[in-house]
């Protein structure tokens, strides 16, 4: 008995461990993005995000003051200032790009023409010369510093402050809500007919719906935009709502039908015997029972429309104030492709709403609905 | 604001319109052929012949306009030249047969078909099994499902932080290279390694799809009757046997549904390749190749359409399998 | 005489500001280096309330700059111009044109795509005489005119596009202070450049930062290298034949140019991060290596627009500068310059479109952008004192003084090559394939085009 209990305990451990491992594997990439997005912009590209909590060393150069900032002290001309920003610690410094770490803090470097430079540990430097300085720009002082870890919201401020993200948010909302609601309605009726009504060609229709699941969207873009232009819809919200409805229907019908087929036959048959019309059966029995399936498809469609870029670029206008969120973010990435901090923060902004919706609604997803597409095989 | 009220108005009109259509058309049907009175029997029969079409009509209209019509348009286009003017017969398909990029794409797509549905289903099953047995199962499920909610633009950036490459001696900021170099290997440019890079792209899709598989399979696992499992335990089955001999066969149908759905996603796989490598370094896939020919450089709608039709042809076996399933269902 | 002119200008400025154009970047009449007469001439066109839609690739700072140019058109004519920029311009314009909802004017970064749309009948020929105007008023005018002249659906050549805004490609960027620290001289010949490259390695440094990543367009920076080297190894005639495929892509002359690029990019010690980094480094990230401490590299070959991607606060001409990508001393080919430009084309018969092209022919349209940043023009009628910084002027002078000027060949080749097989071929080449294999594959693709 105790042996069985022991195996049990070990098994529980193993299961917990396996779950933990899976969760880690699946969240680490996203977590890395989250961490990166709140790091200092110089640090993102300098060290891995997993080092965010530790001080990092950075090498850079600081320009000393120019000749016009020199002060005369006795026979010496002196330029002074500091090479450090708040919180940094000086590790080493240098005067040429060939040897940027040649000197310790506090040491003095002899330069050409009798000039000399001292950089103290607190970052203050003093450049002296027996003759007046010439030239407009100050020399470069190369510094290697240790920078304490820093959490910042600057990256988000930059992205959210970027022109038009608020407008884009509105636009996305305007696109997403009707494009989620309308296909569900249409699909629910169709799914019911395909699941519970007898008519010739039903099997064929089901097959067609499954077949249409695989139509690559890209091929529909030009013919449909042309159609919209011909019938006068043009580019705009009406067009994109219709398009998303059309593109979302096959999956909606497929999932909802699978669910509805699994509902208990007796309930429906007995309602029919009682003289209920099909419309009544649909409204009073099928709809309430299918609620989990409807909710979960709604989540899928919402996520898909919210995250879509391709359909929006084609069916909506392209002016800056017409863009959806993904469009603005892509624009940001295009014009600032090398700026990792912009990439990280904007990517996280783009996934924030879907994640929120998902965490708020997941109980429908996980619990109910997809249970239906299961129907026990 | 004006914009939002427009949207709200559309929702109301749309919803109301849909309901009015379904409700009204049914009412009219019942009025034309009342199920009471002299000809009740024939009337019910007639009404029942029409009614399914009322239910399914709007859906058929949408499917016809937004999916079927473009497919036929593509068939027509695939038999024409780049500008859609001159009839070229099967030239575009002949060109496909000889094109090296097309061959590469087909092989890659097949590779994806072999690996991704299997891996996503496997991990999904594993995740479903373990998360159902622990206390924090629902939280664990949310985390594993989370990638489903992320746009491909977002996913592209997330994985950029995993696969990033810095030259030897520089500090790696990509997670994979950091781990790799910690073991003393020189850093690798993961996305350009011939053949291997395909698997790094697939990892992204597996990462996204596992949550989907897990949710559905978890529901199926819970649906297995208690008695079956108890009987097996009484017979002395160990956990492995219980899982593979009892549970998996019980949910075989659901596994097939999951497999099919992911297979279809894989056939259309476009976003990940488009964002991460754009099909270079030997990672081209059909949907991205089609996009290339349709919209990039010198748009050739004929060739693009021909590729699209190949993608659709690849799904025929799945369609046939589904029709059979549907038939069996109707009989049973 | 002069006084009355000023008065007139002032009046017009008044009228313009009354028309709601108070935000013009440079108040008309304020700085007499500008050609305000050409601005005044525009006011003759009264287009009040007429609409014009323009679609182009410029976003962010470039969009703001272009808007500041359009403002003058708006103010002078009263037309309502709506510019939208798209990150995926190439796809967008194809979709819109095919679907029948094109913008009135499109700005093509690649003439190859414009030529393709012209052939399919989506572009409208520009007003008669536009081609002649370009030939007369642009330096190397024949080349520029040809840059915008394509065969229509009927096979007849017309002037379909107007070049506006040029890029000079044959530039090598460097940090003068790093060169001074190491004691390096600016190379005057290709031989010297190659010797310098080897010298830097010997001194323990890395000479080049090369990054050819560019999302969907990955590979294009390498095509610029090959084109520049083509012009330095072969005659301009060979170059032209290559662009038109009279000289096959797998010809030994072309293969030699690719291999010469390989000398730089495929020698591990010559490139920051090694050859592996070339294809995986984004071209926008690449120049940052010049400015690190210690420098990751000493030189970066890229077109004139690249300073937009330098670290914030970099002063061009002091913190960073460029030198001309030199020619071989032992080949008598002069000082060839590779360039590129954006072209404007009409996609509708909207008369405001013609007015807008006429606006681009006026010096003021060029000068407003020149006086800011990131713009060079081959237009001989502008006042080059207006260039916003000395580096731009230096580039403008290279453009005006080139002995041999040629356009970016990949822009002129059919899109499937110049924006397709050539790019991916270069990626394959850097990835390890041989130059001959890659050139053969590109030629094979070319052979399948009709």
Summarize the structure.
The complex is a heterotrimer of chains A (377), B (332) and C (450). Chain A is of the alpha+beta class. Chain A has helices spanning 2-37, 41-44, 154-161, 165-196, 202-212, 221-230, 237-261, 265-273, 278-289, 291-307, 310-315, 325-335, 340-368, and strands spanning 56-63, 71-73, 76-82, 89-94, 108-110, 116-119, 124-129, 140-147.
Count all strands of chain A and give the number: 8
User: What characteristic shape of chain A results from the CA principal axes?
Assistant: elongated
Total DSSP E strands of chain B: 0
User: Helix tally of chain B?
Assistant: 15
CATH fold call of the largest domain in chain A: MetI-like fold
**What's the level 1 CATH class of the largest domain in chain A?**
Mainly Alpha
Number of self-contained structural domains of chain B: 2
Q: Which superfamily, in CATH terms, is the homologous superfamily of the largest domain in chain A?
A: MetI-like
GO cellular component, one term (chain C): periplasmic space
Subcellular location (chain C): Periplasm
Organism (chain C): Paenirhodobacter ferrireducens
Main location (chain C): periplasm
List keywords for this structure.
heterotrimer, A: 377 residues, MetI-like fold, five-stranded antiparallel beta sheet, three-stranded antiparallel beta sheet, 8 strands, disordered C terminus, C: alpha/beta, D-Maltodextrin-Binding Protein, domain 2, 2 domains, six-stranded mixed beta sheet, 19 helices, disordered N terminus
Detailed description of the structure:
The complex is a heterotrimer of chains A (377), B (332) and C (450). Chain A has 377 residues and is α+β, with helices and mostly antiparallel strands. In chain A, 56% of the residues lie in helices and 12% in strands. Chain A folds into three domains: 2-52; 56-147, no CATH class; 162-373, MetI-like fold (Orthogonal Bundle), CATH 1.10.3720.10. Chain A contains 13 helices and eight strands. In chain A, the strands form two sheets. Chain A has a five-stranded antiparallel β-sheet, with no helix packed on it. In chain A, helix 1 runs antiparallel to helix 13, helix 3 (154-161) crosses helix 13 and helix 4 (165-196) packs parallel to helix 7. Chain A is elongated and about 110 Å long. The relative contact order of chain A is 0.11. Chain B is globular and about 90 Å long. The longest helix of chain B has 39 residues, at 40-78. Chain B is an all-alpha fold and 332 residues long. Chain B folds into two domains: 2-78; 91-331, MetI-like (MetI-like fold, Orthogonal Bundle), CATH 1.10.3720. Chain C is globular. Chain C contains 19 helices and eleven strands. Chain C has helices at residues 2-18, 36-42, 60-77, 89-99, 111-119, 130-137, 141-147, 176-182, 190-202, 220-233, 236-243, 252-265, 275-280, 351-360, 363-370, 390-401, 409-412, 415-430, 435-448; strands spanning 51-56, 80-85, 105-108, 149-151, 157-159, 161-168, 171-174, 299-301, 321-324, 336-346, 404-407. In chain C, strands 1, 2, 3, 6, 10 and 11 form a six-stranded mixed β-sheet that branches. Chain C has two domains: 2-167 and 339-403, D-Maltodextrin-Binding Protein, domain 2; 171-338 and 408-448, Periplasmic binding protein-like II (D-Maltodextrin-Binding Protein, domain 2), CATH 3.40.190.10. In chain C, a hairpin with a 5-residue loop joins strand 4 (149-151) and strand 5 (157-159). Chains in contact: A-B, A-C, B-C. Chains A and B meet through helix 1, helix 4, helix 5, helix 6 and helix 7 of A and helix 1, helix 2, helix 4, helix 5 and helix 6 of B.
